Amino acid sequence: MDVPLARVEPGRLARAHLAIYKAAVATLRLVKGRGSGRAAWMLERVFGAKNAAVFRVFGNRLLRVPLGDGYWLPALIGGRDYEPEIRFVLSRVMNAECGFFDCGANIGWWSLFASTVISSPRRIVAVEASPELHARLADTASLNDHAFTCLNRAIWNVAGERLSIAADQRNHARASVTSIGSVVNRPGYTQAEVLSTTLDDLGREFIDSTVSGVIVKLDVEGAELRALDGGQDILHRNCLVVYEDHGADVGCHVTREVLRAGLRVFYCDDSLRMHDIRDATALAVFKRDRRRGYNLFACRPETQFHDIMLDLLK
């Protein structure tokens, strides 16, 4: 199902570009059911990189996506809902008094969702390490009257450290942060320097006593444990963490460490049914696809978020 289209930019050529892309995707799905991303990349070589579609998401929010974006375009045109399990949970735990830290925000999808609930831009902090993606994130904020705050930083266990961000130019869901000096020699990847910050630093700067609870979404491609290590103070508050445990990690290493830290972990399956994850074995039952990331939710027992998550289990 297509997400509503607000406009195509800059003009007639862009409309032709989009029409051909849609026709290509329809054909591909009839033949083999995939290839939408590759179609976007190939058509960009023909039409150029300046064409874009502006979509209307979450009601009245706007999101600009280049027509050569092989990650977001397939998700918004003819694709299934994007991470419906996260929307299911956030729509039940988030309220106007919450803070939201969108770490690894990409182009701002979940920050836009949060802005439909939380009115203060200072309570929605979108953190993106890649300079290129941060520019698109800032564009998303600008399109929506600066509904959230953007930071070009990497979430880490210490603040102020110079790090290296390596990003896949085609699939910008694949980006990773490493220490300075690490060289990424992979075709199609770009590398840049970025300063680090921590969850606790974000909390000190953006969260005050009027905030009822903080939701932290971590999409930091392998830096989850470092990020959590830098959030010891905030994690002891009424805090809900949304994180990924990748299917390629058969040992469920991140979840093992989250449980060891004393947090309760919950998984929402594809049918939007909640499960209590008491150990890594319980999660491994659901991790059947090694190419996929599995989103989980974690919080301290005896917090308001914990009570809500227990209600969702019923």
Layout: helices, strands, pairs:
Elements: E1 5-9, H1 12-31, H2 36-47, E2 52-57, E3 61-66, H3 72-76, H4 84-93, E4 98-103, H5 109-115, E5 124-127, H6 131-143, E6 149-151, E7 154-155, E8 162-168, E9 175-179, E10 189-197, H7 199-206, E11 213-218, H8 224-229, H9 232-235, E12 239-246, H10 253-260, E13 264-268, E14 274-277, H11 280-284, E15 293-299, H12 304-313
Parallel strand pairs: 4-5, 4-11, 5-6, 7-10, 11-12
Antiparallel strand pairs: 1-2, 2-3, 8-9, 8-10, 12-15, 13-14, 13-15
Polypeptide structure, described:
The chain is α/β, with parallel strands linked by helices. It folds into two domains: 5-76, no CATH class; 84-313, 3-Layer(aba) Sandwich (Rossmann fold). The chain has helices at residues 12-31, 36-47, 72-76, 84-93, 109-115, 131-143, 199-206, 224-229, 232-235, 253-260, 280-284, 304-313, and strands spanning 5-9, 52-57, 61-66, 98-103, 124-127, 149-151, 154-155, 162-168, 175-179, 189-197, 213-218, 239-246, 264-268, 274-277, 293-299. The strands form three sheets. Strands 6-5-4-11-12-15-13-14 form an eight-stranded mixed sheet, sandwiched between helices. Strands 7-10-8-9 form a four-stranded mixed sheet. Strands 1-2-3 form a three-stranded antiparallel sheet. The two termini are 30 Å apart.
